[in-house]
Amino acid sequence: MTGVALNASHRTISCVSCHRDGQFTPGAVLCASCHRKDFDATRSPNHAAAGFPLVCEGCHRPGDSTWRTSGGAGFNHNAFFPLQGVHTTVSCDSCHRSGVFRGTTRACVGCHQTAYNATQNPNHAAAGFPTTCENCHRATDSGWRTSGGAGFNHSAFFPLQGVHATISCDSCHRNSVFRGTTRTCVGCHQAAYNATRNPNHAAAGFPTSCESCHRATDSAFTQGRFSHPAFPLSGPHNRRCNECHTTPNAFSQFSCTTCHSRSDMDHEHRDRDARGYQYQSRACYSCHPDGRKP
Q1: What is the dihedral of CA 135, 138, 143, 146, to 10 degrees?
Q2: What is each CA distance from 80 to 12, 75, 77, 101, 203, in whole angstroms?
């Protein structure tokens, strides 16, 4: 035989409250068979409008002394949407407006689209930020701002190193435009490349792949490190650029004869019986590509 355990308030009422007309036929008993009117009349929250199931025992326990949460109902909101951070402090109708629970969105943007659209620092809509708020904001945060919440990982797009870590966002993202911002160095530093005179990058035909010589961790452009691949700059050849590249900003041209006098070179090559010797810089390089004697 099955029935209802006489717990708490069930022990305080008369038998006929449940067994109307003297009916005691045994069988499975549903809470809603007695409490349907309570279910329909409940407004905080409105169970019927919210689409709550009629299995009252899902939230209420037979041993409870009252229907309310404080003494009875134990609805597990976390089974549907975890209440964390600010969500633990707001009233139910902040999300469930007009007592409607059925179909309430579980996506952040479903409630926070207005906040997304209104944000100007940075402008999320203009920047093309995704509406998956949880990518940057955590449910446990106490506010929208970075200081209290948002943790956008800029390094996933462009690492902020050296000087880049010290400048304001609008130095690169002008007018709060984030979508399509270039990730190449020259995309931001073309003007600096064009204006450089020591040496003149444009006239010298230097590549615009700035990272070939400059590192993101450098604190200034003057810390660039140029690798001289065509000729080792070691020993006596570790000299200033303009001592070999005598034509201003023409780095494809060079002169060996500036330092190596003709009389010395004629004498040395005559002693070595060097055939085909010419006192000419290109000829020097063809025989001495590493600056050493053959």
Answers
A1: -50
A2: 35, 10, 6, 11, 65
CB-based burial of residue 95 (10 Å sphere; 0-12 exposed, 13-18 middle, 19+ buried)?
Answer: middle
**Rg of the chain in Å (alpha carbons):** 40
Q: How far is C-alpha 80 from the geometric centre of its chain's CA atoms?
A: 27
What is the Cα–Cα distance from 35 to 290, expressed in whole angstroms? 97
Cis peptide before 130 (omega within 30 of 0): no
Report how far residue 194's alpha carbon sits from residue 207's, in angstroms, rounded to the nearest whole number. Answer: 12
Beta carbons of 35 and 60 less than 8 angstroms apart: no
Tens-place pLDDT, residues 166-222: 887 778 887 767 778 899 999 999 999 999 988 888 877 788 989 888 999 998 888
Peptide bond into 199 cis (omega under 30): yes
pLDDT tens digits, 103-152 = 888 899 999 999 999 988 777 887 778 888 888 888 888 777 754 456 67
**CA dihedral angle for residue 260, residue 266, residue 271, residue 275, rounded to 10 degrees:** 110
Euclidean distance between CA atoms 245 and 281, whole angstroms? 11
